[in-house]
Amino acid sequence: MSHQMVKGFPMLTLGWTDGSSFLPVSFSLLSSPKRYLDPSKNHTKGDFHPDSYAYKRREAATMEKPELALQMLKKAMQTGIQAKYVLFDSWFAFPKFIQAIQDKCHHQVICMLKKGTSFYEYQGKWFKLESLFQVCQEQNRNRRIQLDNKTTLFGSLQVTLGKNKQGQNNPVKLVFVQNRNKKAKREWLAILSTDTALSDEEIIRIYGKRWEIEVFFKSIKSILNVEKEFQLRLFDSINAHVAIVCCRYCYLSWLSRNQQDIRTCGTLFYQCCEELKDIQFRESLERILQLLISFLVEHLHIAEDKLKELFTLFLSSLPSYILLSLDTIKCES
Predict the structure, then answer these.
(1) Cα–Cα distance between 13 and 214 in angstroms, integer?
(2) pLDDT tens digits, residue range 247-275?
(3) Is the pLDDT at 48 greater than 90, yes or no?
């Protein structure tokens, strides 16, 4: 390995899933929040017309992730995409962001929480996440639920996530479950749900569907070669390439859904590649010559029989090694 720094763009992706199929809905390549810099040219978003897509893409690239994620969610809703829950990992698990989704998008949220400085109100007092786990441990010490051979459900607490825009307390449910990553320092994970009516097991089950976006990232990298298929340096070219890759993934997901195929998208992709054979050089040349004859007949008003005679004479004048490589070319009207 060269251990050298490689310039690139992080990709923020919004997807839709029903637990069986996953579809990428929207994505945005990200750059510095202060200033966008094209790797090959010193172009900023100010060099483009404000109404152009190039400007809008660069404007989105320089936004903060939570703000951009909220904007992508709003646009998806405007196009008619519906969902019961918004799922995301611990990177976006900020109280303000969760409340913004509830207030502005009117969606329920289920997300993983991270160890941080956020406080949650429980029985009139404010606690950090670690302290709430200790409280849950004391209350449910003899009531732990074994979900499977590797996972233990420690319990749950209903806490308050500050106040909403109406000034009312915003209740949420925290579910504490065993961390199956043996290398992790923390033995437990905390999942937040704004839908407090859900059971602990249902919250864990629904959050598990978020893993499908990780499968999507793995597939477009290892199967669809989103990183290595082309060496692109222009920001707009990279955006176009990623959009095409997402369309290809949507096709594979749709194909699997229609066929109720239990195979992975990777298997379907390679099968499609085998079915779509590359057109041979001889066949492509034959088609070009047929188009040429049709063009000459239409615009030069030359008799078709005369053109075919000239074409046969032209082929006979070619060297023998070219004729052998071309095999037999037919020219039909």
Answers:
(1) 11
(2) 999 998 888 887 765 556 666 666 666 55
(3) no
